[in-house]
Amino acid sequence: MARLAVLISDYEMARDDDRSFIATMAAMIGVAVALATAVVAVVSQTCQFAQTDDCVTAHDALLAATPLPTLAALAYMQMLGVVATMRSYYIRAVETELQTYAVDQLVAVPELRPASLVGVMTEIVSLRRGRLGYRLLYLLIYFCVVVVFGGLALYVALRLGQPWQLIMFIVYGLFALLFTVEVMATAVGGNSLFFKHAARYAARTLDLSRPEPPHDEERKLWSYLLVPRTADWIKWIIVPAVGGLLLWAGSIRLDRDELATAAVVWLMLEGLIYTARYQWNDIIGLADDVAHPARSARKRLPVGNSNPTMRRNVRRSAVTALARVALAIGVGVYFDLAWVMACLICSVFGVAVLYEALRRRPASDRPERTTPVTVAIWLAVGLGYVLRAAVACWLIGLGPHDARTWLVAGAFGAFGVMFVTLTWALEASSYCREVDGEIRYAPELRAKPQIAALLPYTGKPVAPGSHSKDDADCGDETMLEKRGLLISPWNSAALIALLLSAPLGVLMADGLDMPAADTRLGWVALVTAVAAVAMLASANTRVRTLVLLAGTVGLAATQYSLGLQPGFGVAPWLVFAGCYVAFRSQSYTSLTEGLEILAKVLLYRIDVLWRKTRSVLVSKRTEALVWEDRPGGSP
């Protein structure tokens, strides 16, 4: 009977919370409507919207912040909704338990047993399997929220200056994306949400160990030939991001034909030329990839299970790479860009030849030692980022004789060295085990001195080990979380990139017209240098994040006080410092599997949404019969 008393008490408290939730949500809806109405009334009185004699002068920053109260109300409502979803599933579990104590059905409703109210209501209000009319009303409410809030934010943004437009699009766009994902996870995926976190709670309280993830199979050859390096997709955004921001910040304008030409050059560079270069790199480094402890996660050229299969895959990859280069030349000839494509091919493969020549130099007996060759390799990997940044500048009309091109290219070259050395340091950790505070690397790492030489900069002693690469476990650790040695390849490159972000930010904030002797650059450079040194000296991710935020606020305030546009001026700092902070908090496992996990989650959500939509369109019983092979389905 004690168990029954606990269940009844738990059920009553949960139902009281449910009633309070309904009252709170009703009040919050009224608050959100009132806030939206107030925002419309306030902004309509400002001079940006009403060109009258009695209009009120308001700064763009104030107007950009006017939708924030409505945003906060919507966020709070969604947070309440998550709690309500979890409570609903828990109440149903308690009801099921209570029904074991009340076996007889209700007299007035013989189909039901006592403690069935929430379960019956769920058959109507559930967005997964509830009444169609209720689900349509819910979608209508969500559509109205999106239209009202999105329309209000867009209405305000279109009347503001470019930097504040950019800030509003980024901030409110990210909120809209997060809000949509959370609504779908709560409404449609409530079942998975509840049981996932219930299992996590049980595992933590009962000290259960999580099951090991299944071993990934080798990548299919056709998938590799289509997209060789999925982990390098992030590099695709460099050209459009650099060119787009410089266009938006400056006075340069491109017509439709010039934009089309830029798009063609970008697609040929990333989709054909660089992809062919990656395939060549994978063929050259096939032996190293086969011996890599995280071979399946890297998703490089598949080798199969026999030598004939390996030779066939290498030949097909080589033929595909040559076909990509030939197609790039053909597209260049068709669009009268043959000379451009020839220069890009020579540049990309020229850097590749230099890199491969340096990498083939014989390693020393102690590969963890830094040598002139390893330093040359670290510098060579930044040339690809220099090339991408230079191409972006050329596409918007900044030629090689323009000092602004060299500033952008130099900043992104230093950023590239930082990016790659951080990645390689994490990759080197996947060969290592830590024994008594000493990092010991597997013998297979001797073949990669360019990454082995990065290990001592983590701040721990390094020595050769005798363990197998399969027994290495440091790849699951955040080896770069601690400060390590201040003078390290990634810190040196990060310092250069962050210092160059000062003139680059001022250049963008001043519309690409800043004179070289502008005194405002000195103040911005001083704030940037202080923030950069504090960033590199930070002991952990939490401190680095605080420095990132403080540096952003300090730079924005400094640029605003100097009459610059802080929305553009802080962009280079945010990109370089944000990537630095993110990489220092990663392990090699999370780095290699993060994008893949994100892609799988996205595809799963799309599949779930499609199946729910299909069940509405064709009925659940038809879906069960046709797609799930359950004749007749459930009534």
Tally of helical runs:
25
Give start-end ranges of low-pLDDT stretches: 208-216
Mean pLDDT: 81
What is the helical fraction, as a range of percent? 55-70%
Strand order of the largest sheet: 1-2-3
The biggest beta sheet is recorded as: 3 strands, mixed
- Alpha carbon gap, first and last residue: 37 Å
- Alpha-carbon Rg, integer: 29 Å
What does this structure look like?
A 3-stranded mixed sheet has the order 1-2-3, with no helix packed on it. Helix content is 68%, strand content 2%. The protein has 635 residues and is an all-alpha fold. It has 25 helices and 3 strands. It has helices at 2-43, 60-64, 68-99, 117-125, 132-157, 162-187, 190-205, 221-226, 238-249, 256-284, 286-290, 295-298, 307-334, 338-359, 372-380, 383-395, 403-429, 449-452, 489-509, 520-537, 541-561, 566-569, 571-584, 588-618, 620-626; strands at 432-435, 438-441, 462-464. The model is unreliable at 208-216 (pLDDT under 50). Helix 18 links the parallel strand 2 and strand 3 (462-464). The longest helix is centred in the N-terminal third of the chain and has 42 residues, at 2-43.
